[in-house]
Structures are given as C-alpha cells and as structure tokens.
Design brief:
Strand content: 25-35%
Number of strands: 22
Distance between the termini: 60 Å
Radius of gyration: 24 Å
Number of domains: 2
Structural class: mainly beta
Shape: elongated
CATH architecture of the largest domain: Alpha-Beta Horseshoe
C-alpha cells in the first residue's frame, strides 16, 4: 500500500510539474531563452510555461539551435525569427497567432503553415525544402534557394511579394486574380520552368521581367500544378473515387454548376484525356493507360483545381 501511494504521489507531482513547465530539450534554445530573460540559471531542459506563453515575438538568430521543441507553448507568438540555425524540422501548427515567420538558412525539408491562418509573411529561403504547404492568406512569400519543384498559388489572392528564385520548379501557378496588385515577382534560376500560369500573359510579360529566358507566361499551362489538399477550395463539393484506381474513376459533382471540363495529364505534361461534361456524374476509364501518377484538372467557367490520380 505504501509503495502504491508513493508511486501515486510521484505521478501527481510529475503531472503537475509538466503542466506548469515546458520541455526544452535543445540546450542552445534554452540558453537563448535565459539570455533573453525568460528563464534562469543554466539549461536544465525545462522553462516555466508562464514565462513564455505571453511572448508576442522572439529573436533566435544564429543560436546554433537544432530543435525548437517547446515553441508550441508560445501561444501568443505573432513573430518568430529563427533564421541561421541548424533546424531540420519546424512545427508551428500550435502557434495559431503567428503573423510573420522567418526561418531562412536552416536545413528544413518540409514546412507546413496551413494551420497558421493569420500568417501573412513567410521567409523560408535558403533551406532544402521539397514540400511547402501554405495557407491562403499570405501577403509575402520568399521561398528562394530551395528544392521546390511545384508551387500552386492560385488560392493566394492576397499575395503581393513573391520570390522563388533558385529552386527546381517545373510548375508555377500564380493565377490568383491579384497579379496586378503584386509589388514584386522573382522566378529566375529555375531552369526547368518553361510555363508560368498567370492572370494575364501580356501584362505579366511586360511587368514581370525577372524570369529565365526559357520561361513564358500563359493563362493555361499544359503542365498543371498539384494543389495541396489545404487549397482544394474551389471545387469543395466534388469527389473522385477510387483513388488509387485499377482503371475506372468515378467523378461526382455536388454543385449547381452545369458545365465542367476534365483534363488528364501525364507527369511529363502531355494531355492524355479531355472531356466536357454537362452532368453531375462521370466515369473515366484509365485502364488502357500505363500505371503511374496522373494529374486531373477540373475546370468550370471561373474555377480550376488539380487532383493527383494514381493508376495501379
């Protein structure tokens, strides 16, 4: 009985301790908090949560930080500056008040800010990003110097500042209805980018000159960008199944729109299927096509979305 009570008391103490403290496993991160006056003594792996949960901005430049675990308890954070560190992972999904994020010159491969709906400025250049999941409210996006191959910004209708220089882009869609309000556009040093989808090709050719000689502007590029699931808002009332498929794909539209065009492309950009639809249901037969990944683009009179389809 005494042993049980001892274990119970230890458990209660530990639970209470963790509820009042935030774990900070990276000693350099905690040292930075100590230097800023948010913690005391020497790094011990924890910081009182009450010391950090009201901080609105924090500057962690060149602190040799490998891990920002604990940042999730900075619940009032609106500006996070963590550039020039050694980060390979950054999870800011709990920092829902974030407005500006500076994480340039780290070693990030993936970054997801889809849960940060108040985020308007993202500086993530100089990483190794191959996957970037955005929200729809960004005003400024600087993602230069990464390994991105595709960017679809067609839902980012507030975007005014954009720099994607020095990536591996093969697809860039910035047809968002806001092109004429943009203050800057840079897309050079993307040698495999031949077509940039925009609102008005002539206007973009005149006003956006920072592109590679091999790139052109179009309102309908033949190589469509995949839209992240977080961006599938235009055709929210449709379903495609089964996916993956052995050949037959059902497409159902739960909407009042009367006209659709369906296009299917290979990953090389070749158009392999096109059909104009006036009904709410359609069955597409891909059984005669080689197994692999295809891009299905659904177009209405004013909207367009791309969905990845896998044929097994």
């Amino acid at each position: 009985m005494k042993i049980f009570l001892s274990i119970l008391l230890k458990f209660i103490f530990l639970t209470s301790f963790l509820a009042q403290n935030t774990l900070i496993p990276d000693a350099n991160f905690e040292q930075a908090l100590i230097d800023l006056g948010h913690d005391m003594g020497v790094p011990d792996g924890t910081v009182p949560t009450a010391n950090i949960d009201t901080i609105s901005s924090i500057y962690l430049y060149q602190k040799n930080i490998n891990d920002l675990t604990g940042i999730e308890d900075f619940s009032a954070l609106t500006v996070l500056y963590c550039s020039d560190n050694n980060l390979t992972n950054l999870n800011v999904s709990q920092n829902v008040a974030l407005i500006q994020l500076y994480c340039t010159d780290n070693s990030l491969v993936n970054l997801d800010v889809s849960q940060n709906t108040t985020l308007t400025g993202l500086w993530c250049g100089g990483n190794q990003l191959t996957n970037l999941i955005l929200n729809n409210n960004l005003n400024a996006l600087f993602c230069f110097g990464n390994q991105l191959t595709s960017l679809n910004l067609s839902q980012n209708t507030n975007l005014e500042y954009f720099d994607c220089d020095s990536n591996q882009l093969t697809c860039l869609n910035i047809k968002n209805g806001n092109n004429t309000n943009m203050q800057s556009f840079y897309a050079t040093n993307n040698p495999n980018l031949t077509c940039i989808e925009v609102d008005n090709a002539s206007w973009s050719a005149t006003n956006w000159t920072d592109i590679d000689p091999s790139a052109t502007f179009s309102t309908n590029c033949s190589n469509p960008c995949i839209v992240n699931i977080n961006h599938l808002t235009s055709f929210s009332n449709f379903s495609i199944y089964p996916n993956p498929t052995n050949g037959l794909i059902n497409i159902e539209f739960n909407t009042n729109k009367s006209y659709f065009e369906i296009e299917i492309f290979s990953l090389l950009g070749g158009l392999v299927y096109v059909n104009k639809v006036n009904s709410s249901k359609l069955i597409v037969n891909l059984s005669n096509y080689p197994k692999g990944i295809y891009l299905m683009r659904l177009n209405s009179e004013k909207e367009s979305v791309v969905q990845k389809v896998v044929v097994e």
